[in-house]
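User: Fold both of these, please.

Assistant: Here is the first one.
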Amino acid sequence: MLNKSDKIIITCPLIFTNDKKLGLLESGGILIGNGQILDIGPFDNMKLSHPEAAIENLGTGLITPGLVNLHHHLYSSFARGWAAPGEPPRNFAQILERIWWRLDKALGRDDIYYSAIVGLCESVQSGVTAVVDHHASQFTVKDSLELIAEAFKSVGLRGSICFELSDREGTRILDIALKESVNALSKWPVGIKGERVSAMVGLHASLTLSDNSLRKIAEATKLYNAGHHFHLAEDEVDQKESLAQYGIRATERFAKFGLLNERSLAVHGVNLEKPEIELLRDYKVNLAI
């Protein structure tokens, strides 16, 4: 059995490197040691350069870099196949109220941790090595992100974590969740060497956040220069509510409070108009559809 410090060359018929110079390697090799990829190149060259390395020939298949899941709800891992009691939802708002919000209010500490473990293990099995998670557990807020960070560490993945800020359970819960978010930004800032996770500011959507709440979130987190991870125009109701209550579209609301930057991640965006897409582009916001 190999030790972690031992070197091994993994080879297979095709290796997609995502590198402009190396491109797609036929009969390539990947040198691994101390838990890191040390070198990539033609297998024959690798074997000559590192005669001490063990060799594992996969025989068939394609090796690619690890995939990145830009938007996950790890807390929903155990909800697959769940038929919520009561009348089935008939529209987007009812899906939120009768399924997802109902679920996240029922989560306890063990549910949060093991949902993350299961979701991250399934990610590894699917070739995903980095996960951007958007967490919600409105009645179990304190230290919930610590539990998720521990799950990332246990499974060995990299990723980003945040707590979903929303007005839906009132000001008291929002304030507790905002404190959890600020603590996470302080504990897991972007770019710390050796840290597997970093924190973002999570927001549910324009639909469930008032102007006062967006202002409060912006003021509490501005010192951290953090990115904001939020659902944007996932359904027409997000835009309709924004126009009816504030006279502007959802993207414009986030821009108004300084929540758009190059580290921010808008998700879905299936009901955006061209000016909103241009606004996201101007602020260099990442959009995951």
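And the second sequence with its predicted structure:
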Amino acid sequence: MLEKPRLDDDKIVACLCGRYGLTVTEIEFLPLGYDANAGVYRVYAGGQSYFLKVKRDAVYELSVNLPRCLQEQGFEPVIAPLPTLDGDLWGKVGEFSLILYPFIEGRSGWGAGLSDHQWIEFGALVKRLHTMRLPDDVWGRIPRETFVPHPRWGEAFRQLQAVVSSEVHENPFQTQLVTFWKDHDQEMRTIVERTGQLSGRLQDQSRELVLCHADIHTANLLVTALGELFVVDWDQPILAPIERDLMFVTGFGAGEREENLFFQGYGQTAIDWLVMAYYRYERVMEDLIEFAAQVFLRETSDETKQDSVEWFMVQFDPGGSVEAAHKLDDVFQI
């Protein structure tokens, strides 16, 4: 979130004191991330720094319980949330949930890039994730891939089509996106249709499922000054085919050289390209709908609207995610 949540700093400080026992000396908002329902802060207390996520909606329990479980099982490249004095993994202030983490100084792997060694290490840690087996009580709570897109995406797409077609917009960023959407309307429809077509071809087929992060691109890698890698944002873990994670390093966010380095660490593996095609189309569909929703369907600042318009448009650039999704069309005659 690029703008601060509508929650007074004093209330945040009071919650951190009452629930975590921290005496906060400073709190700093960090304009990071693209979750419209979450803002992040750096908190200073007792001579230490903490990373605080403030969510406007309910906490998805698996997103905090799974990193804690992975850490307990010896998976080091994860930052687990800190418990409250009562042992909970988040606190509450009205409609907001507060999740506290250790603050680890580092940079985004997407912003600064990875070294050759780090690409190999990245592959090795994803392989380790894919081969982990967690206690049954945790494993049984992880969603399983169904190859059925959530109905909310279809509903949001229909809402956006109606908004783009029928309303007059005074906001310049809404006007800009309306023009761009209309120029790419058929392509938008095609993306949604092909996601559905591929979904229908996969639903009745059985495939091996592994633990996937589901959003494990380099923007969700934290790289420390010592070169250590940590995987962040465990918001949507799922038991799915390996392609769910591997799509980010197979022509969808990484170049050929980086891909080769990644698989040196991961190990050579057979890719199911029908599954990969589905994941590419599903991802680009969800991204485009989410960016457009930030512009038209949610109360967001002009800064967020402008940023969302830019991210929406860049998906259609040469070498972008739309082109990556189309690359497998001829293979599967879709």
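The radius of gyration is 21 Å.
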